[in-house]
Specification:
The chain has 19 helices and twelve strands. With 567 residues, it is α/β, with parallel strands linked by helices.
Length: 567
């Protein structure tokens, strides 16, 4: 992706969007060239058919020359076959160009989103990214699709103009002046259409983001009685989007009507002038038929040019949106000369003073939950911080090396759609016994037992068929199956009942024996099973020891864990 035409971060400008479209075109120049060649052949043949008909009338029908009529009829048949064949190839290459530009853009966005990692949701709303995949990629594909017919329209207009100028200067001048007039009228609508489409696209992304937020938090909204409030807000914003769409549609409908009206008037004018010339004896009957055919034919290239301007405008707006994603830079960059991380060692967060000893089950109890999340993000290198593993800074290692040794699992993790076995074991390396062992550790056996197909059951999007506690236990089982050297879990039992939490707390230690594990939470059930407890206040480790020792000696810890105020 180094060759992507990305400018400085900020609002995409016209040149950047055009450069992006040009970059896409250069990646598929062969099929675009073939599409234009077959498109020009297809439409140019259509432009020659009226001339063949006129010659057949003048040389064959008027003079009653059967052989001449047969020759021109054969020429007409040949042109028809060439037009059919070139039309098929033109359409094939145009569809390929549309799909290629569409999916190249999808690949570029997805690849860059993977590189951005945790930076993307911080910088751009989920709805905006969804809208890019739902609409913008298709508009970019349309901008390259129209090149086949757009180039053909230009060539055919030039060809017909030359033919008409040769036969009649008046009719040639009408065509020569009529096309620019239509293009000038259409161009007057392009700028307001561009502006209104941009406003509509902005509101569409915002509304999609709100819809994503509502769906994700629907259970919470129902629990606090806020469902109706958010529904009203969504309805209001939806009406604003509808109004923006209507404003854009007014210009669009006017553009569509002009695409019909202007060629229709042009057709009537050329036909009227041709009839007058035929009555005056300046042209023959066959030439009159040809002129009418040219006028009827010109409706298609003139409409195609207007369509090309419209699709290029939409593609330009969409390319600007795509560039907003591609211009984002990850907060954490790879080092120029990476160092390898050791297989084992103490993981140290210098800012908080937390040290995770190898093979020890540590529980981090913080007076503020956000402090525990920040520490977990630094330990997993999702945020910048001075963190070392065995004395080697994580900042000096590659992201892949860090991810291979440290796994951070929090409650924002998703359950994706697909078979449950693949959801729990994405790599496909674990056997049934290993999967069931992880499920037992997570106390999720009854979740599997309740499914008719067991591990083969299909998981819906976000695992919506499971309760919050069931989802959390399945995510815990997935993290345990990954079996990383260092596993960091934030509030892994916050959504389960006390009996289930007690079982999980007893089983995690033996399941992770010999490997480093950090649990962030203040549940006494988890803390009592820990080998080591670190108490964090204001982002710093202020006390360490066992759960029972800290209860006896540290009143601040006791206040946080027991929810009391005796401190």
């Amino acid at each position: 992706m180094r060759s992507l035409p990305l400018a400085d971060p900020g609002t995409p400008d016209t040149r950047s969007a055009i450069r992006y479209l040009w970059w896409l075109a250069s990646r598929q120049s062969r099929t675009i060239g073939l599409g234009m060649f077959f498109g020009i052949t297809w439409m140019l043949v259509g432009a020659l058919i009226p001339m063949v008909i006129g010659k057949a009338i003048d040389a064959g029908i008027t003079t009653k020359d059967t052989s001449a009529l047969a020759r021109w009829a054969g020429a007409f048949l040949l042109l028809g076959l060439v037009q059919a064949g070139s039309g098929i190839m033109r359409h094939r290459n145009a569809v390929f160009n549309w799909m290629s530009a569409n999916f190249r853009t999808v690949q570029a966005v997805v690849r860059h989103a993977n590189r951005l990692g945790a930076t993307l949701p911080k910088r751009m709303a989920t709805g905006e990214v969804v809208a890019i995949g739902a609409a913008d990629t298709s508009h970019i594909g349309n901008a390259l699709d129209i090149t086949a017919r757009g180039s053909a329209a230009i060539v055919s207009l030039v060809t017909v103009t030359v033919i008409l100028l040769t036969a009649s200067v008046k009719l040639g001048l009408v065509v020569l002046l009529g096309v620019p007039v239509q293009m000038a009228v259409v161009s007057l609508l392009i700028k307001p259409l561009h502006r209104r489409q941009q406003a509509y696209r902005d509101q569409q992304g915002a509304l999609t983001g709100r819809a994503v937020d509502i769906v994700a938090g629907l259970r919470v909204l129902r629990g606090i009685g806020g469902e109706q409030v958010f529904a009203e807000r969504y309805r209001t914003q939806s009406q604003q989007l509808r109004e923006a769409g209507v404003r854009a549609a007014r210009i669009d409908s006017l553009l569509e009507s002009i695409q019909v009206l202007m060629p229709g008037l042009f057709l009537a004018l050329v036909t009227w002038l041709g009839a007058r010339l035929a009555v005056a004896g300046e042209i023959r009957p066959g030439e009159l038929a040809s002129f009418y055919g040219y006028a009827a034919f010109l409706v298609m290239p003139m409409r195609t040019l207007a369509e090309m301007l419209e699709k290029m405008t939409r593609g330009h707006v969409s390319a600007g949106r795509v560039l907003q994603v591609l211009r984002l830079e990850p907060e954490i960059t790879a080092p120029a000369s990476p160092l390898p991380l050791p297989e084992h060692g103490t993981l140290v967060d210098v800012k908080s003073g937390l040290s995770l000893r190898p093979g020890v089950l540590t529980v981090l109890a913080a007076d503020r939950p956000e402090d525990a999340i920040e520490i977990a993000d630094r330990l997993g290198r999702y945020a910048e911080g001075e963190v070392t593993l065995g004395g080697v800074p994580l900042a000096a290692a590659t992201r892949d090396d860090v991810r291979a040794r440290i796994l951070v699992a929090d409650n924002n993790a998703r359950l994706f759609s697909g078979p449950l076995r693949e959801e729990l074991d994405p790599t496909g390396t674990a056997g049934d016994e290993q999967i069931m062992s992880a499920l037992r550790t997570a106390s999720a056996e009854e979740v599997i037992d309740a499914l008719p197909d067991g591990l083969g059951a299909f998981v819906a999007e976000r695992g919506r068929e499971f309760s919050g506690g069931q989802q959390q236990r399945l995510r815990l089982a997935r993290a345990l199956l990954a079996d990383p050297p260092i596993l960091i879990m934030v509030e892994p039992t916050s959504a389960v009942d006390a009996h289930t939490e007690a079982r999980i707390a007893r089983r995690i230690g033996p399941a992770r024996q010999g490997r480093t594990t950090l649990l962030a939470g203040t549940s006494p059930l988890l803390l009592d099973q820990a080998d080591h407890v670190a108490f964090v206040e204001d982002g710093k480790v202020v006390a360490e020891g066992t759960h029972r020792d800290l209860l006896a000696t540290e009143p601040r810890y006791r206040a946080v864990v027991t929810r009391s105020v005796d401190a």
